[in-house]
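Ticket #248: bound-state structure for zinc ion.
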Amino acid sequence: MYIRLEEGFYIVGGGDTGPGISSYKDCNVYLVADKGRGILFDAGSGLDTGRILENIRETGMELSRIQYLFITHCHGDHTGGVQDMKTAMPHLVIATSEKEAGLMERGTEDMLGLTAAKVKGAYPADYVFRHQKADRILENGEVIRMPGIAVEAVVTPGHSIESVCYQMEWKGRRYLFSGDSVYKNGALSLQNCYGSSLKDYRTYLPRLADRKIDALIPAHFGFALTGGQAHIDKALAYLKSSALPPMV
Ligand SMILES: [Zn+2]
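RESOLUTION: The complex was predicted; output attached.
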């Protein structure tokens, strides 16, 4: 199963906080397919990566044609499936920021936020994060260009130690894959665990100002295919107020 958002743009994974087409624990996993090539955003939890791979195949995209996997941050629901994806697609270039890559390669359960998330009951007690080395480290502002697609890494610590949003220019439109950094209606996600910081949110989320984002595509809950910047601007306004911003 998959959901086609637009020609060449699919949701191929997502559990309880999304379309329910893969493991309940998976964040949304997005596939952009263009000119016979594909790129993925986030990898899901690793609880049932086979389902996500099958969903990708159902869109008509061959796994061998997928070039990049862009990781927004190293929490289990986004990154636990990276190792399986690399096994299924050894050619895949796994890209993220330096600190998130460090966690992905060797983060302890405490550093991954998993200890606290298990106490909350958000993960099965026997969930094991499978580490994976990144293939490419992205700096803030770095742009990866493919024919017809450009993806810029916008590093926005706050939800996690070095979360990355990905601004994609494609077919004359501007998309922001925002991970857990900002959701629809300006909601944020501050967590009571390693790496999450409201101060960092205040410092770095303003990097998303004035970008004229058309589509805001978070990793959970709703998305907006038009008018994306207005949702981001709400978050930026909340961060200027002394009241705690809305969180999910
Ligand atoms: Zn997260």
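RESOLUTION NOTES: The radius of gyration is 16 Å.
TICKET STATUS: resolved
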